[in-house]
Design goal:
Blueprint: H1 8-23, E1 32-35, E2 39-43, E3 47-49, E4 52-55, E5 63-67, E6 73-76, E7 79-82, E8 86-94, E9 98-107, E10 113-119, E11 132-133, E12 146-148, E13 155-158, E14 161-168, E15 178-180, E16 182-184, E17 190-191, E18 194-201, E19 208-216, E20 226-231, E21 239-245, E22 258-262, E23 270-282, E24 285-292, E25 295-301, E26 318-326, H2 328-331, E27 343-355
Parallel strand pairs: 2-9, 12-15
Antiparallel strand pairs: 1-4, 3-7, 5-8, 6-7, 8-9, 10-27, 11-16, 13-14, 14-15, 14-27, 16-26, 17-26, 18-23, 18-27, 19-20, 19-26, 20-21, 21-22, 23-24, 24-25
Length: 356
């Protein structure tokens, strides 16, 4: 039979369609998925490829990759990258049903510290390129009884140490019965992360409240954050307090994080008080560890999920404060007989180290 010209294209279309139907293979759904490893170790900054195998052979499906902790490791189409020290489980899922996992331990070598700033108090007068005097009376938000001055009677350098001396006296027209001193590095020396330490000899006597601490360089308290590296009260002679204050948890609310250590001989003797403030130290979270004479006392941790500046403002610059308060909400009742001898806080040095 001879095909007419108008029938020939239709016949060719049917032949092509028939051929395609015969050669197309049917879609095979995945019955299982496996990864080429179930656990691995990865250094921060390095990447490694995971290979997912679907069974049976030539099976198809929608593949999705996820990380259990994207602070530690992320995954893109099977390529895993380590971001911070910690642990993360990488999961491959097929068609929302089948899955396989690989646990990654991400490691990081701690770089050595190097000294980036120090105050040795070796001069004759306080270095005003590093320090500010804070002056005034008004209780300082804690019902404190002293008036802070910049007089050498209250703050001076002697024999390579800073001397802050509290006195029982009425200063000028103010009703405060005591004077003392408070100095800060605000707007002159600010730091974020590192090892901060000071070697300090504390005064004795009921009513004394010396401190070595830090405030955030931006915004007001408590939003700026506060790190109390060392606080002591003479009514509890062996106690050293470490604390943090945030907008969410602070002393005004009575719920701030704190820790107390009890050590003989902190009054009248030098001891070193320090923090190590680390970025993404473990599982991608920041922390602040507190030390006395090189021995770790405790560690405060950033909240792992949903952390904001209200609960962890400790990711920006802070400045130092050294002061000797008298009385107040923490210092308590003052025993005036303590002033029969000099009431003195001595600071040998303040030093800041950061990772290279």
């Amino acid at each position: 039979m001879k095909l007419t010209p108008h029938i020939l294209p239709l016949v060719l279309f049917v032949l092509v369609l028939f051929t395609a139907c015969k050669t197309d293979e049917p879609i095979v759904s995945a019955q299982s998925v496996t990864l080429n490893k179930s656990e691995d170790v990865l250094a921060v900054g390095d990447s490694v490829a995971l290979i997912a195998t679907l069974l049976p052979d030539k099976a198809q499906g929608t593949v999705v990759w996820t990380s259990s902790n994207e602070k530690v490791a992320i995954v893109t189409e099977g390529l895993v990258k380590g971001l911070a020290r910690g642990s993360a489980t990488i999961k491959v899922t097929v068609d929302s049903l089948l899955y396989s996992t690989c646990v990654f331990t991400v490691t990081a070598d701690d770089l050595p510290y190097e000294l980036v700033w120090s105050e040795e108090f070796d001069g004759d007068t306080l270095d005003l390129t590093k320090w500010n005097y804070e002056i005034g009376g008004y209780g300082w938000g804690n019902s404190e009884k002293q008036y802070y001055t910049d007089r050498t009677d209250n703050v001076r350098l002697e024999d390579g140490s800073l001397i802050i001396e509290a006195k029982k006296e009425t200063y000028k027209e103010y009703t405060n019965k005591y004077t003392s001193a408070r100095i800060t590095t605000k707007a002159k020396a600010v730091f974020a992360y590192g090892k901060m330490e000071a070697r300090i000899s504390l005064p004795a006597g009921k009513g004394t409240w010396p401190a070595f601490w830090m405030l955030g360089a931006t915004s007001g308290w408590p939003y700026c954050g506060e790190i109390d590296i060392m606080e002591h009260i003479g009514s509890d002679p062996t106690m050293i307090s470490h604390a943090t204050h945030t907008s969410e948890k602070n002393g005004s609310r009575g719920n701030n994080w704190s820790n107390r250590q009890y050590i003989d001989g902190v009054e009248g003797n030098y001891h070193t008080y320090a923090i190590e403030w680390e970025k993404a130290y473990s599982d991608g979270d920041d922390n602040i560890s507190f030390y006395i004479d090189g021995v770790k006392s405790t560690t405060a941790w950033q909240k792992h999920v949903g952390s904001t500046l209200t609960d962890w403002p400790f990711n920006k610059d802070f400045y130092f404060i050294l002061n000797l308060a008298i009385g107040g909400t923490m210092g308590g009742t003052v025993d005036d007989s303590i002033f029969d001898v000099p009431v003195i806080m001595k600071v040998d040095y303040v030093r800041v180290y950061q990772r290279k």
